Amino acid sequence: MSTDPSPAQRAESLERHLRDHGVLADGEVDAALARAESADGDAPSPALGARVVARAWTDPVFRARLLDDAVAALADLRPLTVPVAVLEDTPTLHHVIVCTLCSCYPSELLGPPPAWYKSFEYRSRVVREPRAVLAEFGTEVPEDVELHVHDSTAEQRYLVLPLRPTGTDGWDEQRLAGLITRNALIGTAWPRPAT
What we know:
InterPro entries: CN_Hdrase_a/SCN_Hdrase_g_sf, CN_Hdrtase_a/SCN_Hdrlase_g. By secondary structure, this protein is of the alpha/beta class. It has 2 domains: 7-36, no CATH class; 42-186, Nitrile hydratase alpha /Thiocyanate hydrolase gamma (Nitrile Hydratase, Chain A, Alpha-Beta Complex), CATH 3.90.330. 43% of the residues lie in helices and 11% in strands. The strands form 2 sheets. It has a two-stranded parallel ribbon. The mean pLDDT is 90.
């Protein structure tokens, strides 16, 4: 039985040590995380990815550039050092992303990957039984929709451009971005419905 501390315990201990030695102020880490994930921030986060998708939904020229060469299309917003390809969902095709070897993920755009993305269970099962895994996320992909699983690597990362929810005509980018979750950008969820 291992007595090693968990990653969360190690992070808490490190943060406490840095605070005790005057390197960090109380609440500084939480504030930094909140800034990074702010809907109007430019730091890598699901919010930044949501803004990219919302722009693609409202700007056909940007959408075409994004699908053709995402690195060039995103250069003004967030320069990327690893190639990212954007995969567009259609009514008959749905994409889902995995890294079967480790946890390659478009971190330069979306921030750190979720813990489940790095898990052996997700990495192995989504390739063999993608519909079952997506159903466990609450995402039922109809049988008449083709499902493509894309394997990220150290040299190539992927981002899903999900279908725009119905009932969102006339919505601005900010309102649309509120419908897009990190899981929708990976393909394990649909965007939130219009309300």
